[in-house]
């Protein structure tokens, strides 16, 4: 089989899988359902960022705990970030190793971002994420700086559990997922309320399922699920769709989670 034929067959398979899994019902059992509840971009941003932060582990636990998190915010993320009683959030468990202290840490930083910049998208523009070759990593570094500054007087010790403390080499799976929700705009699952970053600039939110499927298809050689793997895989997917490479996240994740033999 020629290289051109192999390329065409793989693109056809990925496109077919993307169409199969990128459907409205996908959101019914996916964490994206939480930011989809809102119409105000700022509510969507905060919900997307917080929901994606706890999106690891068993799906049903993620959904139950994301619901609990939104209840803590009174169902109004922006209102709580700007004026809610952050310090009243107790020490209880939010999700697995993410506790009340981690949520307070995150919310203090988000309060500073929203009070000074108005929205997360405007903050992203201010710190140069849209002009970066790696928007998620630029954004993560600058969000972390805001979190550290906002929590300087609170004696926070240990990892924040919000974003990796040293994001440079991380796959940033959860932040890349939040950006997919905020940027992709095909009107099916993802929300697409941002204009400053284009779908062409996004990187795959790499996890165990999508990584295993990608290796099985010969799209990814690197064994670790780290930043280099994300860059390698996204580069491969841009050959199939340069304008919207992360549409294939539906194909890779969906097929991987379903245990589909490719």
Structural key phrases:
single chain, 262 residues, mainly alpha, 11 helices
Explain what you see.
With about 260 residues, the chain is mainly α. Helices cover about 50% and strands about 0% of the residues. It has a two-stranded antiparallel ribbon with strand order 1-2. Strand 1 and strand 2 form a beta hairpin. Helix 1 packs across helix 11, helix 2 packs across helix 4 and helix 4 crosses helix 5. The longest helix is centred in the N-terminal third of the chain and has 19 residues. The protein is globular and about 60 Å long.
Order of helices and strands: HHHHEEHHHHHHH
- Uncertain residue ranges: none
Intertermini distance: 17 Å
Categorize the overall geometry: globular
Side by side, the strands of the main sheet go 1-2
Name the helicity range. Answer: 40-55%
Secondary-structure map with pairings?
Blueprint: H1 3-21, H2 41-53, H3 59-72, H4 77-83, E1 93-95, E2 98-99, H5 100-117, H6 120-126, H7 135-150, H8 173-183, H9 208-216, H10 227-238, H11 248-258
Antiparallel strand pairs: 1-2
Helix pairs in contact: 1-11, 2-4, 2-8, 4-5, 5-7, 9-11
Short description:
The chain is mainly alpha-helical and 262 residues long. 52% of the residues lie in helices and 2% in strands. The chain contains eleven helices and two strands.
């Amino acid at each position: 089989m020629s290289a051109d034929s192999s390329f065409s067959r793989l693109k056809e398979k990925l496109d077919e899988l993307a169409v199969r899994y990128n459907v409205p019902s996908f959101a019914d059992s996916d964490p994206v359902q939480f930011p989809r509840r809102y119409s105000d971009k700022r509510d969507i941003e905060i919900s997307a960022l917080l929901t994606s932060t706890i999106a690891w582990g068993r799906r049903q636990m993620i959904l139950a705990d994301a619901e609990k998190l939104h209840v803590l915010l009174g169902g109004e993320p922006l209102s709580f970030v700007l004026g809610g009683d952050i310090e009243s959030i107790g020490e209880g468990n939010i999700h697995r190793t993410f506790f009340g202290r981690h949520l307070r840490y995150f919310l203090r930083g988000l309060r500073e971002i929203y009070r000074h910049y108005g929205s997360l998208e405007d903050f992203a523009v201010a710190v140069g994420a849209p002009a970066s070759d790696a928007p998620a990593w630029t954004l993560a570094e600058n969000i972390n700086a805001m979190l550290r500054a906002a929590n300087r007087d609170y004696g926070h010790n240990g990892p924040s559990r919000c974003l990796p403390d040293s994001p440079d080499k991380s796959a940033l799976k959860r932040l890349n997922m939040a950006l997919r929700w905020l940027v992709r705009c095909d009107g099916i699952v993802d929300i697409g309320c941002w204009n400053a970053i284009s779908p062409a600039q996004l990187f795959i939110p790499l996890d165990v399922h999508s990584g295993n499927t990608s290796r099985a298809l010969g799209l990814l050689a690197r064994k670790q699920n780290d930043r280099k793997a994300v860059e390698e895989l996204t580069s491969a997917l841009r050959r199939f769709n340069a304008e919207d490479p992360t549409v294939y996240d539906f194909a890779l994740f969906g097929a991987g989670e379903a245990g589909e033999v490719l």
